[in-house]
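Data availability (excerpt). All sequences and predicted token strings are deposited with the supplementary files. A representative entry, CENP-V/GFA domain-containing protein, is shown inline so that the format can be inspected without opening the archive.
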Amino acid sequence: MPVLLEGSCHCKAVKYTVESNTPVPYQMCQCSICRKTGGYMGSINIMGNTKTLNIIRGKEKIKMYHAAVSFDENDKPKEMGNSKRIFCTECSSMLWNYHDEWPDWIYPFASSIDSPNPLPPIPSSTTLITVKRDSCPDYVPVPEGAKSYDGYGPGKGIEDWHKQYGAWVE
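Structure token line:
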């Protein structure tokens, strides 16, 4: 049974809801893009059901950033990535990202989720994973106990990963 997540940006100009079958933060992406847009260690993702996304207010304050994965010698984008990040144009809070190849899911940034608060208890069998370490400098640490992957890791998203490793899925 999905959980209704409520999210917003820092300045509250944008407010949204999305249903999630997996409402527990599970993945820290440490790719070069997430570290630049989300902070030194990267960004923490949750998985939401795209069709349930409801922008309550602030649609006009939302902008999409389609990130480059490589640049030429003049710092012009050479190759574009596949994820598109949604953020607030007022306070620049990251809200969610999505990938065209996985149209059923969006990935709210855990930092934008306001409720449920607290999130459901995370069983001790649940493991944080870090992904995209192949584009991350060695000096960026992996959190203690996290499983680390150069790419995105096993499966096509949190639901596949949890099924494979037996972690929390309702």
